[in-house]
Amino acid sequence: MSALPDPGATRAVLIGTSRYDHLEPLPAVSNNLTALAAALAEPSSWGLPPEHCVTLSNPTTAEMTMAAVRAAAEQARDTVLVYFAGHGLVDPEHDLYLAMPQSRQQQVETGLPYRWLRQALLTGRAERCVVILDCCYSGRALGSMGGPADLADQASVEGTFLLAAAAETRPALAPPGEPFTAFTGELLDTLQMGIPHGPELLEFGALYRHMRISLAANGRPAPQARDRNTGAQLALGRNPAYLPATGSAPPADKNHASERSWPSPSGIRTVKGFFKALSDVRVTSGLTHQMVSQRSGGRVSAGTVSRLLNRETLPKTWQTTAAYLSACGVPDTQVAAWQAVWMRLLTETTIEAADRPIVPRPSQKHTTLLERLAGRVSRRNDRS
User: Distance between CA 133 and CA 156 in Å, rounded?
Assistant: First the structure.
C-alpha cells in the first residue's frame, strides 16, 4: 500500500557539488539542491520542516557530509532520504565514491566512498531509506555523466529504494544552459506536473517507470532503480494529474467513499505527521472547507476545519476531529483507527510534558531587585 511518510519522523540530506578544483564544474547542481529542498517542503509532497531537511552545497570534507548523514539516519524513525548530485567516480576496484570539490580521478581518499553512506543508513533507526544519485561515474566533461552498468547494484541498501541516473556514457545528462541536470529536472517536472493516468500518490516505483520512459523518449539516458522490501510503495508526493475513475465529484455515500485510497493513520508517529495526514484526508476527499462543513450537518464550520488543520498541538477532545473525518467520507472503521492514534499521541505528549523539568521563574520582587543590582554594578563600572 502506497503511503507518504510522517514529516515529523522523517529526515532528508541533500548533497551537491557544483564546483571542482580538478574536475569539470556542474553549475546546474546548485539549482537542483534549492528546487528539491523546496519540493520536499511542499504540503503536496513530504511537508518537511526546514530543520528536517539539511542541504550541503559543495561540502569541503567527507567528515562534514557523513556527520549530517549519520545524524539524519539516527533521528529519523520513519524515512531518511539521501540525495547526491555531482561527479561520481570509480576507484581501481570499481567501487563508487562521490566527488567533493577537491576530488581527483582514481584517488578515493579525495572523495566520499559510497560504502560509508551505505553503512550509515544500514545502522540508522529509520524504517525506510531512499537514495537518489544524480551523478557521473567516469568524471567526463560537462554534459557527459556516465559509468559502469552495475553501479545501482553497488549502491543498493536493504530496505531502500535506490533511484540512480543512467549508467551509459551518454551526452546531455547535464545539458549546458539548462537550469537543472536532466535527471533531477525530470524528477522535479514529474512532481509538479504529475503522471497522467497514474496513481493517486507518486510512489517511487511509478516515478521510476515514468522517468525511464520520458527520459528515453527525449534521447536521454534512462535511470536505474533497485527496490528492497516495500521501498517502491513509498510516495514522494501526491499526483497532480490524478483523476479518480468516478470523475472529479466527491463520493456521495460511504460505500463509494470506502473505495478511495485514504491516508492511513497506521504510519503516523508524531503530532506533525497526524496533522499532515489529516490535511491529506481533505485533499483525497476532493472537498473544500465549506463542503466539509456542509456535509458535517453543521457540526463543524469551515473556519473550524481550517483551524483544525493548522493546529500544532493535539485537540484535547475527539469530537471535532471525528466529525471532520466522517464529513470527508472516511469509513467508520478507519475513523476508529484515527482515534486510537490520537489517543496514543495525546498520552505520549502528556508524558513528555510531565517529564520536562520545571524551571522556576523569579518573582516580580526578585526580578526588580536583580535589575537594581545590575544597574548599580553598571554605574560603578562606568565611573571606574
Answer: 11
Domains and CATH numbers, the chain: 7-238 (3.40.50.1460), 254-355 (no CATH)
Mapped onto helix, strand or coil, the DSSP state of residue 79 is strand
Cα–Cα distances in Å, from 23 out to 20, 96, 130, 186? Answer: 5, 16, 27, 25
Cα separations in angstroms, 250 against 98, 176, 295? 48, 45, 11
Q: How far apart are CA 367 and CA 320, in angstroms?
A: 43
Region 194-218: mean pLDDT is: 92
Pairing mode, strands 160-164 and 96-98: unpaired
| Nine-digit cell string for 76 | 529519523
Query: Rounded distance, CA 23 to CA 58, Å?
Result: 13
Amino acid (one-letter) located at 164: A
Give me the pLDDT at residue 360, please.
58
Global pTM reads 0.80
* Backbone torsions φ then ψ of 106, nearest 5 degrees: 65, 15
